[in-house]
Amino acid sequence: MKIGFIGVGNMAKAIINGWLTYGEVKAQDIFVHSAHAQNYRKYAFENHLEPVDSNSELANQAEVIFLAVKPTVLPSVLAEIKEAVTTQKRVLVSMVSGVSLAEIKASLGAGNHELLRIMPNINVELHAGMTALAKGEFLSEAHFDELQGLLNQLGKTTLLPEKDFSTFVALAGSSPAFIYLFIDAMARAGVKYGLTKKQATQIAAQAVWGSAAKVLGTPKTPWDLIDEVSSPGGTTVAGLLAMEDAGFMSAVVKGIDATIAKDQEKH
Ligand SMILES: NC(=O)C1=CN([C@@H]2O[C@H](COP(=O)(O)OP(=O)(O)OC[C@H]3O[C@@H](n4cnc5c(N)ncnc54)[C@H](OP(=O)(O)O)[C@@H]3O)[C@@H](O)[C@H]2O)C=CC1
Ligand SMILES: O=C(O)[C@@H]1CCC=N1
Fold it and tell me: Is residue 68 a known part of a binding site?
């Protein structure tokens, strides 16, 4: 399957790098175009991908087209590729946050366009991603199975109604940044008590990684696990109560609220 990427920024590169690392998709089957020739040509050259001169030419060459541009750029991109997508019956996969399948369909005009909306996160590069999928009404089962198979190789996927995509953006699309913030805050506290930033960051990141693995591998709830770590009269409960006193849980929920509100703003 020949796969094209319109936009080769952070998210597109994470997906492409994830596939290339384990050879799931051949480099010569990946076509790329972005706003600046020096960017997409350099990346294509370094990774033996196929650079293409325009969005419309990419739509002529690739059977499946991943839309990996910012929401504000999407309307002009869809206008450029509309003819090729319609006449050549291309499959479109949009990872653009806040833009529904209905909006994409409306921009493309008449035709039974095969569409898939996805919301990946940056961890796909390490095959530890979390990606939501919403099928367009005309997407064939065969194309859906093939694309889900490719995305499953990059981590976990889940089918999700589009109405829940904004919540998913907060919990998985944007949340790596929130978790980096938590790791950095822990590490900074380590520095306060004399550790080097490098060592403190490694210690905090390993603790987060192991804790996430534990949550994923047990039927117990996080609350059960919190109790297992909290010895009576011990250090953990003292730390937990001080964090809650400073509003830890409501700070997290406020961050999620703001992320969802931003995703739902019209562009
Ligand atoms: N970053 C993330 O973790 C996630 C991002 N997303 C979504 O993915 C999309 C891309 O995000 P991200 O990769 O972070 O953004 P970046 O800013 O890193 O990349 C945007 C890309 O769009 C390209 N571009 C801009 N204008 C055009 C155009 N007219 N035609 C073709 N390409 C164009 C840019 O080109 P150039 O490089 O040449 O300037 C760049 O490669 C967004 O909609 C975002 O919501 C979804 C989930 C997670
Ligand atoms: O910040 C953003 O808008 C995108 C969506 C999810 C992650 N990055």
Answer: yes
| ipTM metric | 0.99
- C-beta neighbour count of 34 within 10 angstroms: 21
**CATH class of the domain defined by 168-264:** mainly alpha
Q: H or E segment at 38?
A: helix 37-47
Atom number in ligand 1 closest to CA 69:
22
For 132, the enclosing helix (H) or strand (E) is strand 129-135
pTM for this entry:
0.97
Parallel, antiparallel, or unpaired for β 114-119 and 129-135? Answer: antiparallel
Distance CA 162, CA 134 (A): 6
Cα of 262 vs centre of ligand 2, distance in Å, is: 10
Going by CA atoms, what residue is nearest to atom 4 of ligand 2? 174
pLDDT (tens digit per residue) in 122-164: 999 999 999 999 999 999 999 999 999 999 999 999 999 999 9
d(C-alpha 136, C-alpha 116), whole Å: 5
Is the distance from CB of 63 to CB of 91 less than 8 angstroms? Answer: yes
Distance between CA 126 and CA 137 in Å, rounded?
Answer: 31
What tens digit of pLDDT does each residue of 26-69 get? 999 999 999 999 999 999 999 999 999 999 999 999 999 999 99
CATH 3.40.50.720 is the classification of domain 3-160: yes
CA–CA distances in Å: residue 159 to residues 114, 214, 215:
17, 24, 21
Is 256 annotated as contributing to ligand binding?
Answer: no
CA distance 103 to 117: 11
Domain-wise residue ranges, the chain: 3-160, 168-264
Residue the block writes with tokens 């011990």: 234
Distance in angstroms (rounded) separating the CA atoms of residues 128 and 145:
20
81 annotated among ligand-binding-site residues: no
